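Model it.
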Amino acid sequence: MQLTYPKAPSNGVQTLRPVLQAALQTQGFGINRLFASAAPAKISLSEAYRGYSLSLEDLSQGKGLKDARVGDWHYLVFADGVSIADAQLAEVRGHVEFASLNHGNLAAATVDALKLAEQSPQLQGKTVELRVLFVSALHVVAIWLHAAGEDVLIPIEPTPRELALTGLYSEAALLAQLKPKADQTKQRFDADTRGQLGS
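Modeled.
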């Protein structure tokens, strides 16, 4: 399996470097010891890839990946070859700006999903574009390997285990699994006349 990447913002890495340097100097990330103890000189970044999102409305209406909205640029942050964070840049009026630094499980889970994909006979010899899909209302995150005529999705943390286990899914299989929960959640939101859900 060979990964390809979209054309990234030319100044993406330059935008991220000072933010990462500052974050490493504060040493304030107690949750992630790997990040807190990383030496700035040992930091490297992956190629940039895009995040996409589907809403409850999209899933309820039977929409699929072709309808997913394009979101932030993502970079995996490595220290000594180990993934320690996921850095995000947002495009704002034609420029990229720092959006967030996720030093939870997202980066490690992404690397694990890619290792799983590498071992899959289904993807042997194929060229796929790396993407990440979010269905925020259901807390679903999936690595999306996009190829002409075929999309493979690998749910990762924090996706609830009752919705999908980590493994390779076709678009149809994963979306069919998510749709009942999406319909149920959407009904709850629609019935919430006091506006308390989601706050």
